[in-house]
Design a protein that fits this description.
Distance between the termini: 34 Å
Shape: extended
Protein name: LRC43 protein
Helix content: 10-25%
Keywords: Leucine-rich repeat, Repeat
Strand content: 5-15%
Strand order of the largest sheet: 1-2-3-4-5-6-7-8
Structural class: alpha/beta
Number of helices: 9
């Protein structure tokens, strides 16, 4: 599927919410009629079920028994299990477009999704959207539900935040953009309080951000930011990188998955006021401890003085790609 909506429809088919023992069918048609008749008494109907029908308890047991052919795998999400059980006990609650009202968390991983389409707006209660490991390069914020609190886009191809920041979800608390293609210095301007007033957690790891000073000046406006991940960016190679961030963002609690203790904050106190220590270059030292399977060049040059024998030399070229 190329869009989130198409991937969701595929997900629904996988759950089988309209197939036995879920949904409507000959196995629960009297209960369906009872719910449509306000004067009916469901308890009496269950006491004398017509032949071929199942009680709600029996249908639920078919979903929960791991030996049942209709059971979900043990590693399925709590939401998968909840939707299946609701579809068995009260299928009218998930019938048609009502299923969109029941979904608060949507996780579509590694499905080749390229487009975050406007079909997402049907999820009026959606709080968590995880679209990791897809092929998304642009995110149109107008297509995101305003109720969203978590947006995870790790391992995609996002290279520009302009579309995402046009009308961002106002209540968003976590934004995950790790392993994408963001490049400085043009993207830092999108990471401010104006766009993300309630952001608590931000993951920008393994992109191509280079301007630490500009990034910090923008992130410092995020009054609620407590968790920040920047490792894997070129700016993380700067010698004073961690100390400068710790001192510049006093409300930060965790940086690159490492807790910031008061002792560390005291150690780097005052570093934020010395931007001249931030250099635009970094040095990388690579040491090779041992190489196996290659002839030793020195072993072939130990000849006696005055010898006229041929001299065999070996040389090797090692290339590093960053």
């Amino acid at each position: 599927p190329s869009s989130v909506s198409a991937a969701f429809q595929e997900y629904l088919q996988h759950l089988g919410l309209q197939d036995f023992p879920c949904g409507f069918g000959s196995w629960n048609k009297s209960r369906l009629h009872a719910r449509r008749s306000p004067w009916a008494e469901p308890a009496r109907l269950e006491e004398a079920l017509p032949p071929g029908e199942e009680t709600p308890e029996a249908l639920l047991e078919l979903l929960r028994d791991q030996h049942s052919p209709w059971a979900l795998p043990p590693d399925c999400s709590p939401q998968d299990r909840l939707l299946r059980e609701v579809a068995a006990l009260a299928p009218e609650l998930l019938h048609g477009s009502r299923v969109f009202q029941a979904v608060k968390s949507l996780r579509i991983l590694d499905k080749g999704v390229e487009e975050v389409d406007e079909g997402l707006l049907r999820f009026q209660q959606l709080e968590e959207l995880v679209l990791s490991a897809n092929n998304i390069s642009r995110v149109t914020s107008a297509h995101l539900p305003r109720t969203l609190k978590v947006l995870e886009l790790c391992c995609n191809a996002v290279d520009d935040l302009q579309d995402l920041c046009a009308q961002p979800p106002p209540e968003l608390q976590h934004l995950g953009l790790g392993y994408n293609r963001l490049r400085g210095p043009s993207q830092e301007k999108h990471l401010t309080m104006d766009f993300w007033p309630n952001l608590v957690s931000l993951d920008l790891s393994f992109n191509s951000l280079t301007d630490l000073l500009e990034l910090v000046s923008q992130l410092s406006t995020l009054q609620n930011l407590h968790i920040l991940v920047l490792q894997g960016n070129p700016l993380a190679l700067i010698p004073t990188y961690r100390g400068f961030l710790v001192d510049s963002l006093p409300k930060l609690s965790i940086l690159d998955d490492i807790h910031i203790w008061p002792e560390e904050r005291e150690q780097f106190h005052g570093l934020a006021g010395q931007p001249e220590l931030i250099r635009s270059e970094a040095r990388v030292v690579v040491s090779i401890g041992e190489m196996k399977g290659l002839p030793n060049p020195e072993a072939f040059q130990q000849l006696e003085v005055g010898s006229e024998g041929p001299v065999i030399t070996y040389s090797y070229c090692v290339t590093y790609e960053f």
